[in-house]
């Protein structure tokens, strides 16, 4: 169906039409632009639509005038654009913006695309690992004291331990289960099993986080195509519907963070579930930003999968495994599969593949009755719990 920008909304529903990954893991010979293009082509092919339908584009993190420069590289001339950049939550926030634009009739097909060669760039000496986001503005009062990004997460984790009795063994369980989920994912960078003891005995990075409490550094890209329901009859695959979304911001400086044990997902999650008309108990799987193990734990609490302070016991006994009570990060997440920077878009790709039943025979999630999952949530976190975007998706 041919649509034109500005088509009256008619309360249109929004579907995920296509998803794809670029080459991921160790990609030494590609540029970030090439990974953007590869993922975009694959997502478009997955949808079965012609590129001429794309009238909206969202990208962040690359180019002098993102997303203009990336759109030019891809040969696109969009009439709706978004370059929101709020760290790891960027892509869930962008998906929310894109869905709103489609409902409003401002766009009919919005392409979200990301690509990064973070690992390859460091290996080749084209960049160095960054310890902070900068020293201007409010951050000038923290950076001189060596308060790095990971130190902020570590401090928050320590507070949760002190306040609720959360143990390092419980946090380590998150890394162990992420690696177990990655074991059957051919695209995952690390697939070998690990134990709680191995997590605890690893080299210390920022107390209490050892190396395996932290996400990996990889290369990779991905793309997601969102479309108006009018285009669904033309799709090559089953649509996955955007049922609801929510966004929130919290703080920049740690002194302005009201409670180290509460993330902005407590707000974005509540809004997303309310707008989708579903409850956390109805969700079949969750894709959660996991730059560090504590992120997974506190986000599970804040999304309402368990009460505040009960995240430690909740993650025990294999609950997060692909065949557990609440499969979480079914591809292995940022702790095992890939983490090329702002990983939020990868959460949406994995959630869609699981809802379509396309994850593969060895790692497809099923409900207790053997049927395919019907509802999924993707929740991204940016900065050091500075921002959050949550999207609820439903099987078509």
UniProtKB/TrEMBL annotation:
InterPro entries: Thiolase (IPR002155), Thiolase-like (IPR016039), Thiolase_C_2 (IPR055140). Residues 246-395 form the Thiolase C-terminal domain. CDD domains: SCP-x_thiolase. It comes from the Bacteria. This is Thiolase C-terminal domain-containing protein. It comes from Streptomyces lunalinharesii.
């Amino acid at each position: 169906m041919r649509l034109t920008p500005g088509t009256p909304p008619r309360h249109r529903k929004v579907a995920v039409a296509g998803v794809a990954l670029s080459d991921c893991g160790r990609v030494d010979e590609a540029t970030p632009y090439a990974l953007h293009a590869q993922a975009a082509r694959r997502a478009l092919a997955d949808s079965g639509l012609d590129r001429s339908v794309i009238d909206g584009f969202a990208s962040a993190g690359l180019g002098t005038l993102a997303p203009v420069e990336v759109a030019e590289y891809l040969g696109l001339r969009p009439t709706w654009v978004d370059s929101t950049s709020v760290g790891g939550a960027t892509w869930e926030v962008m998906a929310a913006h894109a869905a709103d634009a489609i409902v409003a009739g401002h766009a009919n097909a919005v392409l979200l695309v990301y690509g990064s060669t973070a690992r390859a760039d460091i290996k080749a000496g084209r960049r160095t690992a960054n310890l902070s986001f900068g020293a201007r503005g409010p951050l000038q009062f923290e950076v001189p004291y060596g308060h790095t990004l990971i130190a902020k997460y570590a401090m928050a984790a320590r507070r949760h331990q002190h306040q609720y009795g959360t143990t390092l063994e419980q946090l380590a369980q998150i890394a162990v289960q992420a690696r177990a989920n990655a074991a059957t994912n051919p695209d995952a960078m690390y697939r070998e099993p690990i134990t709680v003891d191995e997590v605890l005995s690893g080299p210390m990075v920022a107390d209490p986080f050892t190396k395996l409490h932290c996400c990996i550094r990889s290369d990779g890209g991905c793309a997601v195509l969102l479309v108006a329901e009018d285009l669904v009859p033309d799709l090559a695959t089953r649509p996955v519907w955007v049922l609801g979304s929510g966004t929130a911001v919290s703080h920049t400086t740690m002194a302005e963070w009201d409670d180290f044990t509460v993330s902005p997902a407590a707000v974005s999650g509540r809004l997303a579930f309310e707008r989708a008309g579903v409850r956390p108990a109805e969700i079949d799987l969750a894709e959660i930003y996991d730059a560090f193990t504590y992120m997974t734990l506190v986000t599970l609490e804040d999304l309402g999968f368990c009460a505040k302070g009960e995240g430690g016991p909740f993650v025990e006994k294999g609950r997060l495994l692909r065949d557990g009570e609440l499969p979480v990060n079914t591809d292995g997440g940022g702790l095992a599969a890939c983490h090329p920077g702002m990983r939020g878009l990868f959460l949406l790709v994995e959630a869609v593949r699981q809802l379509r039943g396309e994850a593969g025979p060895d790692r497809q999630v099923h409900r207790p009755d053997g049927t395919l999952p019907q509802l999924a949530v993707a929740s991204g976190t940016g900065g050091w719990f500075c921002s959050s975007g949550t999207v609820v998706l439903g099987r078509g």
